[in-house]
């Protein structure tokens, strides 16, 4: 599931099929009744999200890591090499009909 090209946290449908391609089970975590037109598109700055996440686990982002680059239309990277930190725009469903902008690392 996605809105405005941005994925919804755990917004997936999985199905189990028999050998005759009959559905026997469906599991989903879709965000129900969300009006895509009413969703906020204000995610805040990705570097603020990265710094906030680092602070939450008792870490501090060094000055040279503060430069954030756009990797794709919704994914940002801070730092360089194998230890670069990424932040991806995502909608987080909080109740039926409501999803809020968030960042996933």
Short description:
This protein is 10% helix and 38% strand. It is mostly beta strands. The chain has one domain (2-104).
Strand content: 35-45%
| Estimated helix fraction | 10-25%
**Class based on secondary structure composition and strand pairing:** mainly beta
Rg from alpha-carbon coordinates:
17 Å
Major pleated sheet? 4 strands, antiparallel
Low-confidence stretches: none
On the 0 to 100 scale, the average pLDDT is: 87
- CA-based shape: extended
Strand order of the largest sheet: 5-6-7-8
| Count of individual domains | 1
Helix and strand run: EEEEHEEEE
Number of strands: 8
- What gap, in angstroms, lies between the N and C termini? 19 Å
**Number of helical elements:** 1
Question: Can you describe what's shown?
Answer:
The protein is mainly β and 105 residues long. It has one domain (2-104). It is built from 1 helix and 8 strands. The protein has one helix at 46-56; strands at residues 2-3, 6-7, 13-17, 23-28, 68-70, 75-78, 85-95, 98-104. The chain has a 4-stranded antiparallel beta sheet, with helices on one face. Strands 1-2 form a two-stranded antiparallel sheet. Strand 7 and strand 8 (98-104) form a beta hairpin.
